[in-house]
Design brief:
- The protein is of the alpha+beta class and about 90 residues long.
- It has one domain: Molybdopterin cofactor biosynthesis MoaD-related, C-terminal domain (Ribosomal Protein S8, Chain: A, domain 1), CATH 3.30.1370.80.
- It is about 30% helix and about 45% strand.
- Strands 1-5-4-3-2 form a 5-stranded antiparallel sheet, covered by helices on one side.
């Protein structure tokens, strides 16, 4: 099973919103873990708050995201991760 760790500049609420956009009706929370099953693959996600990132006067929420795939082929897992990443993207300018 593949486990990934990432550091993300997002609040828990922002992360849950993006995850819900990527996998509508497929996100469950139990025992502090988020579980996502898209039919082809499944993953468990643990969120750990980290200190805010500060850039000049800007403060960004920050957290560690641990993703552990529990089912699916490597291709299915990569597709699931890409779907989540697209939903988490923010516009810039």
């Amino acid at each position: 099973m593949i486990t990934l760790e990432r550091e993300m500049s997002a609040s828990r609420g922002e992360f849950l919103h993006g995850l819900g956009l990527a996998f509508p009706g497929r996100v469950e929370e139990s025992g502090g873990l988020l579980r996502v099953d898209d039919g082809a693959a499944a993953m468990e996600i643990a969120l750990t708050p980290l200190p805010d990132r500060t850039i000049a006067l800007l403060r960004l929420p920050n957290m560690k995201v641990r993703i552990r795939f529990t089912t699916g082929s490597r291709e299915q897992q990569e597709a699931m991760l890409a779907r989540m990443d697209r939903a988490m993207q923010r516009g810039g300018g």
